[in-house]
Design goal:
By secondary structure, the protein is an alpha/beta fold. The chain has 13 helices and 13 strands. It folds into 2 domains: 189 residues, Glycogen Phosphorylase B (Rossmann fold, 3-Layer(aba) Sandwich); 165 residues, Rossmann fold, CATH 3.40.50.2000. 41% of the residues lie in helices and 15% in strands. The strands form 2 sheets. It has a 7-stranded parallel beta sheet with strand order 3-2-1-4-5-6-7, with helices on both faces. Strands 10-9-8-11-12-13 form a 6-stranded parallel beta sheet, sandwiched between helices. The protein is elongated and about 60 Å long.
């Protein structure tokens, strides 16, 4: 069996691809994978680290605002479509799996032309433009949230309608190995004190400038109440390690970092939210302003699954005061834990893997 994975531009669309690939490998060890991504994102390195073959294609990103780059996007997509046809004819996959990034568009269109089964996954609450453009080529569309079941159709025009057999609620794929993290090991690895609460700060694979600056402004007072593990992003570690503050450009032992964390501060990317949900972590979410993350955060706030903050209204003093209050709000913290666990189904990697295998073997 051969599976082509497509996605990239950032780590967000790639993480679920890798999680599903691992799930497929558990029961189908001889499966061959090819990850197709862009030329400038982290996907090539992520594929190499996962031991997967990688190829890059062109793809035009359609920005939902005026930009001169939009004029060149159709030509990049056409080039990517031609490249995709060549890759598909050479690799001959049994199924193509995409996670909603703009890079998937030319590949999925080419797969549709060649009658190769396509499975798509919608991570965020709001449907991505890429998935909307590719939905008619897909045999199955899996979604992270129940509210997304109504967002995809089986056809166009007057026949536009919800297809319950085609759109399936699965949750977002998650790195199951993170559950193996040990609190005791985390205390040793990160040189932490066992009697002081721990705040884990995550800014995504490339680091979040605002979150980094927020922690920098909070540090003198905040480090008196909690000890901090801070993932700053590559090249963005501006503060040295000090008492109760442990910065890392990249955290290798994420399972242990989560296990030892009492509170997690993060953005609202779906890969991170899936981890927080599966690991049942108390979370403070600061979404990227004017992005799809704000809709994700709104959903979490509505379900009382996390504390969500507006970046434009969050200050170091206000954040420090919030952390101090939370440390004594034991009942409220338990509510957050219970609700974030419920925001999406778990075991989604295995569920999506089963769907992909079924589509791959239908004509086999």
């Amino acid at each position: 069996m051969k599976i082509l994975l497509v996605g990239g531009g950032s780590g967000g669309p790639v993480a679920p691809l890798l999680a599903v690939a691992r799930a497929i490998k558990k029961n189908h060890q001889k499966t061959d994978f090819l990850l197709v991504g862009g030329k400038s994102g982290p996907e090539k390195l992520m594929a190499q680290n996962a031991g997967l073959a990688f190829e890059a294609i062109n793809a035009g990103k359609l920005r939902r605002y005026f930009s001169l780059k939009n004029f060149g996007s159709p030509f990049l997509t056409l080039a990517g479509f031609i490249q995709s046809l060549k890759i598909l004819k050479k690799f001959k996959p049994d199924c193509v799996f995409g996670t909603g990034s703009f890079i998937q568009v030319p590949m999925v269109w080419a797969a549709g032309l060649l009658n190769i089964p396509v499975v798509l996954h919608q991570q965020d609450v709001a449907p991505s433009l890429a998935n909307r453009l590719c939905q008619l080529m897909a045999k199955k569309i899996t979604v992270s949230f129940e509210s997304s079941l109504k967002d995809f159709a089986s056809s166009l025009g007057v026949f536009y309608k919800k297809n319950q057999d085609k759109v399936i609620l699965t949750g977002n794929p998650f790195r199951e190995e993170l559950k193996e993290g040990s609190r005791q090991q985390g205390l040793k690895i990160f040189n932490l004190k066992s009697d002081l609460p721990t705040l884990l700060v995550l800014g995504g694979g490339t680091g979040a400038e605002f979150i980094n600056e927020l922690i920098k402004g909070c540090l003198p007072k905040l480090s008196k109440s909690v000890q901090i593990i801070h993932s700053t992003g590559a090249g963005k570690q501006t503060l040295e390690e000090s008492e109760n503050y442990h910065p890392f450009e990249f955290i290798k032992d994420m399972g242990e970092a989560y296990a030892v964390a009492d509170i997690v501060l993060a953005r609202a990317g779906l890969s991170t939210l899936a981890e927080l949900s599966n690991l049942k972590k108390v979370s403070i979410i600061i979404p990227i302003p004017q992005s799809h993350q704000e809709i994700n955060a709104l959903y979490l706030a509505h379900t009382q699954a996390a504390i969500t903050l507006n970046q434009n209204r969050t200050t170091p003093n206000g954040f420090t005061a919030l952390i101090r209050k939370l440390l004594f709000a034991h009942d409220f913290l338990e509510v957050l834990k219970e609700n974030i666990e419920k925001v999406m189904p778990h075991n989604s990697g295995e569920m999506i893997a089963e769907i992909i295998v079924k589509e791959s073997l239908k004509d086999g």
